Amino acid sequence: MPIEPLTPHQIIFAHPIDEAPYNLLRYVGTDQGGTHLYAVHDLSGKQVKPHAGAYEALKLAQGISPAQCWYCPPETPLPEHHRDHVIPRAHDGRNELHNLVIACPAHNTSKRELSIMDCHPYAGRRYMEALHAHISRVAKANAIPL
Question: Which residues are bridge partners to 27 per DSSP?
């Protein structure tokens, strides 16, 4: 059973990186406190968690389909992982899905309060490219000309 295609509304709240584990999450709504909630699916499309905040949902999805550290060279083993804030919490970065990437402990702790662009320009550029592609998907799904 493949994962259902995203609705235009779900595309808005999807992660900019359109690959597993990020794309195993589906926006389902917002709780009374304003936290966006996501259902977590496995690779076959079966829902494994009905709703969780982005931080927890990404952790669960990483357990289903491990991603590489966003900052390490490809194929670098990732025995454990953190969720890193693209815009650090110290600079008002939130636990929103679009503000989280998978990182190895060394990169996450060394980045500290720096933004992704300040700490790792190449990784920052890759993220900006993913964000640009995401904005294009949002515009297309919602029939907004660019």
Answer: 38
Name the pTM for this structure.
0.88
Range list of β-strands (E), 60-128: 82-85, 100-103
Give the span between the Cα atoms of 56 and 68, in whole angstroms.
Answer: 18
Bridging pattern class, strands 36-41 and 47-53: antiparallel
Q: Domain limits of the chain? A: 8-141
Q: Note whether 118 and 127 are within 8 A (CB).
A: no
- Reported as a single tens digit per residue, the pLDDT across 57-93 is 999 999 999 889 999 988 888 888 999 999 999 999 9
Average pLDDT, the chain: 91
- Buried b vs exposed e over 34-50: b needs ≥16 C-beta within 10 Å? ebbbbbbbbeeeeeebe
